[in-house]
Amino acid sequence: MRLRRGARPATTSPQPPATTSHPLRAAIIGGGPGGLYTAALLKRLDPARQVTVWERNAPDDTFGFGVVLSDETLGGIEHADPAVYAALQADFVRWDDIHIVHRGTRQTSGGHGFAALGRRRLLEILHERCHALGVELRFRTEAPDPARLAEEYDLVVAADGVHSTTREAHREVFRPTLTGHRCRYVWLAADFAFDAFRFEIAETEHGVMQLHGYPYAADASTVIIEMREEVWRAAGFDELDEAESTARCAKIFADALGGRPLRSNKSAWTTFRTVVNERWSHGNTVLVGDAAHTAHFSIGSGTKLAVEDALALAACLEEQPSLPEALAAYEAERRPVVASTQRAARASLEWFEDLSRYLGQPPRQFAFNLLTRSRRVTHENLRLRDARFTGSVEREFGCPPGTPPMFTPFRLRGLTLRNRVVVSPMDMYSATDGVPGDFHLVHLGARALGGAGLVMTEMVCVSEEGRITPGCAGLYTGRQAEAWKRITDFVHAQAPGTAIGVQLGHSGRKGSTRLMWEGMDEPLPDGNWPLVAASPLPYKPGGQIPRELSRAQLTDIREQFTAAAVRASRAGFDLLELHCAHGYLLSGFLSPLTNHRTDAYGGSLEKRLRFPLEVFDAVRAAWPQERPMTVRVSATDWAEGGTSAEEAVAVARAFAAHGADAVDVSTGQVVADERPEFGRSYQTPYADRIRHEAGVPVIAVGAISSWDDVNSLILAGRTDLCALARPHLYDPHWTLHAAAEQGYEGPGVEWPAPYRAGSRRPVTGRTDVPKPRLTLHGPRQDV
Length: 783
Known about the structure:
The protein is of the alpha/beta class. An eight-stranded parallel β-barrel has the order 19-20-21-24-25-26-27-28, surrounded by seven helices. Strands 6-5-11-12-13-10-14 form a seven-stranded mixed beta sheet, with helices on both faces. Strands 8-2-1-9-16-15 form a six-stranded mixed beta sheet, with helices on both faces. It is globular. The protein is built from 27 helices and 28 strands. The longest helix is centred in the middle third of the chain and has 31 residues, at 323-353.
C-alpha cells in the first residue's frame, strides 16, 4: 500500500515508513553530487515520483575543484543512466601516470588510469539531468526539519555532507563516530593541467609538507597542500589570511607549479574527519555519501562513494518488496564496501601523517611505498601496470633477476634465512604432559617441507604451571627436549635450508584453561592449577585470580626460562623467540592495564620493562651467541589506557639494546574487552613504525594472506619478514605454491625431491574451448 501524496501534519517523530519500496514522494537533503544523482535515478526509474532536492547554496556554488571517478564507478553510471555517462565522457580528462617528486628526483609509474572533471561541471551535468527528468531543485533554500520531511514524504535521503544536520538530529539512532586526524590541508587550484597525478614532497625548515595534484580540465588542476598540524603552525599558516596562505603555498611548491600562482575559492585550512555511523537509516530516512561515511581524499574522491551509494540505494528500492527491506539491503550491500574503503583510506591518511618516517628511503623504494600505502595497490598489480617501474624498484632493493622480493635472503646474526616467509607460532594444544608427539612432527615437518624460510613452534611453556591448557607443549623436562630434537632433526635432514625456531613463554594469568575447541580462555571444569601474574587481576570477569609474583618467585621464573633455553639449544633449534605478547606472563608486566604493581617492577614503562628484560638477558646469556633471538610484543592492547604506539617503539628499542635481533610485532589479546580494528594486514603499520623509529628488524604478522601482500610489504620496506598462520593451516606448502604461481625457480625456495613432480598446478578442466566471436541480435532465422 502506497502512502498518499498529500502532506501530513508534522509530529515530533517519524511515522512508520512506507510499506512499499517504491515511494512516490522523495525528499533529498543536499544538492551535491550524491543527492543530485540519487534524485535523478529515483525519477528516471519512476517518472511518476515527486522528487524534491533542497540545497542551501546557489547552483554555481562549489567549494572543490576537480573530482576523480574510477572506471568501476563510471561503469555503474553507464549502465544506470547512459545520458549522464555520455555527458561525463565529453568532459573527462584522462591520464595514466603518477609522478612522485622527492629530494629533487622524480619517479614515474604508469598504467593507473584516472578520469577527472571539474566539480562545477559535474554539478551542471547533474542539474541538467534532474531538470530534464522533472526533479524539483530548490536552491538557496534550507531543507525543512528532518522529522517534518519524514512525515510529509515517503522517503528522505540525507545527502547533507560531513556536517549533516539530519545525522545530528537523530544522533541517538545513527550513533555516529567522528574521528579527527593530525594533518591540516587546503584545496586550491592551478590554471594549467598537470600531465600526471603528482605527489611532491617539500622538506622545509618547519617540517615536511606535501602536494597532491591532478588535472581536471585541459587548463586546470586541483592542488591539495597537506602537512602535520605542528608544521602548519610552525610555518605561520595559522596567522595568514586566504590570499596570503595561497601565495605562500605557491612559493613553497614553485618547482611543481613552474612558478605559476595558485588560486582559491573560499579555501580554508581544515583537518579531515572520518565519519562512521552504526546505522544508516531511521524509519524512512537514509544517509548517503559523507553524511554516512567519509574516506580520505588521498585514495580517491568522496564523490565516488556518494555516487556508488546512489546507485545501490536506487537499485535496492527497485528490487526489494518494502521500504524497510530496501534500506536494510542498501546498507548490507554498501557497508562492507565502505568499510574496506575506509580501512584503505585510514592506512593512506596515516602514511601521509607519518611521511617523515620514510624520507630516508632510497628514491624508488620511497615511490613504491607511497604507491602501495593503502594496501589496495600491491606489488603484483603495480607490476602488471608498469613492469619497468616495478623492476627498477626490485633492482634497487637487491632482488636478483627474476626473483620476487619474498625470495630474497635475510640474515639474523649467524643465521641466513633463504626467504622472507615465516610460519607463525600457532598453539596446537596437542601435547601430552608437555611432550610434543607425532602430531607435532607431522605438523611442523609438513610446514618445513612447504618451503618457508623459518618455521616457528607454538608457544613452548617453561614450566608445568606456565601452560595455557593441559595440551600445551613444554621444555621443562629432558623428555620434552628429546621429543623436540626428533622434530628439529627431521627438519634439518628433510628440509635443508629451512630454519626452525622455538617460542618460549609462560601463560601467566591466562593459564589453566580448556583446549581451544572446548572453550577458548574458559577455565577447566576440574584439575585447575594456581596462576601467577604481575598483578592479581583475572583475565576475564569471574575467572581465576592469579597471585602477584614475589621477588623470589620472579627469580624462579627467570631461571625456568633460562633452563628451557638451554634445553632448546641442545634440542637443535636455530632461533629462539621470547614471548612478551598476548597477555601472557611477560606481556602482563609490559601493559599498564595488567601491571598495577607499586614496587620496582611496576609504574613507569622503564619499571614495567624491568622483569621482561631480566628474563631476556638471562636467556640471551644461555642461548648460543651465534644463534639469533627475537621477541614478540603486543604493540597495542586495543583498549583505552593500554600500551601506546610510542611505548611500543620504546619497548622495541629496549629489547634491541639488550641484543634482540628482531622484534615480532603482534597486537592485542592482552585484555578480554579489547576492540581490535581487524582488516587485511591490519597489524603491519605497527611493525612499520617500530622498524623505522626503533631501527630494528621486524617480523610483521596479522591477516597477511597472499604472496602479493608479502612482496608488497617487503619491497616497500615496511617489514623484513612476514609471519603467516592461517594460510599455513590451509596450505602447508604455501611458500612452494607461491613460488610456482610466480614462476620462480631459484635458491630462495626448493621443492623436496619427492614433491618435484607436483611443482606445477594440476590442470582441472578444458582450457581450449573456443570463445564466442559473434553475437546475433533479433529473431533467429534458420535457413
